[in-house]
Amino acid sequence: MITPYFPESGQIHVFYTRAARISDPCLLKQYRACLAPAELRKSDRYLKQSDRHLSLVSRALVRYLIAEVTRQEPQSLCFSTNEHGKPFLVGFPKIHFNLSHSHGAAVCALCRNAAVGVDVEDLGRHTDLSIADRFFSSFEAALVSKAPGAEKRKLFFDIWTLKEAYIKAVGKGLSIPLNSFSFNANETEIQITFSDTGQADPMWQFSQWRPEPGKIVAVAVRSASPVVFKHFWCVPFVGISPNPCP
After folding, report:
1. What positions does the domain 4'-phosphopantetheinyl transferase occupy (predicted)?
2. pTM, entire model
3. Which helix (H) or strand (E) element contains residue 234?
4. Can you give the residue range of the structural domain that contains 209?
């Protein structure tokens, strides 16, 4: 295991958790103990036990990671949201984070002095790929439509996760139409282009990661300088590793 540390300037740290595999009752009790009452109420409102579990682990993941880099007690951390509902950490303006969870997996991205967005998706979940025609740009929809066989599903989720990560980084929610920007997701270097100008913005930087079969993670950050994306596996309150945790 490695000791968690605050990302240096120009670094984005991305932490992946196999939430569905965490079942130790003592660990789950520790997770509940570190959450705020409002977080517990929100987690407990889910009807499905798997959703309650994923919400609990996800929120514990955020508190664990930020507590490690701030050297604060996890339960003492205070969070708020902007007018569009994006969470932020109160009292530590240099720390930026974003959380995503889906189908038993949770991901948290941490960085310094730059808004960050992250999205994780399960490639096996039932999805009508024709929604690309309604929500993607015409350029992206054409890419998905022309993709052969299994490549179609892969390309759809490549684009979908990038779009989600970008919107979450901006922090304005779905007030930004999904078809107002495009990704060249089938290229080596990921770029975003905006429909109103037809221009790319090189300050937006993106990364995609497949931590295990069937999962894809996308991260977005806007920075005038090049950034380095570093990936880690994590079990909250157990440890962090550059390799899959047991």
Report:
1. 115-213
2. 0.94
3. strand 228-235
4. 11-241
pLDDT digits (tens, 9 = 90+) for 204-228: 999 999 999 999 999 999 998 889 9
DSSP for 40-99 reads HHHHHT-SSHHHHHHHHHHHHHHHHHHHHHHT--GGG--EEE-TT--EEETT-TTEEEEE
- Model confidence over 37-64: pLDDT tens digits? 999 999 999 999 999 999 999 999 999 9
Is 170 contained in some domain? yes
Q: How far apart (Å, rounded) are the C-alpha atoms in residues 195 and 216?
A: 26
CB 117 within 8 A of CB 220: yes
Q: Is 143 left (phi over 0), alpha (psi -120 to 50) or beta?
A: alpha
Helices vs. strands in the chain: H and E counts, helices first: 6, 12
97-133 pLDDT, tens digit each: 999 999 999 999 999 889 999 999 999 888 889 999 9
Is position 230 within any domain? Answer: yes
* Domain count for the chain: 1
Helix (H, G, I), strand (E, B) or coil at 117: strand
Among 127, 172, 176, smallest CA distance to 154 is for 127
pLDDT at 186: 64
Four-CA torsion 160, 162, 187, 113, nearest 10 degrees: 180
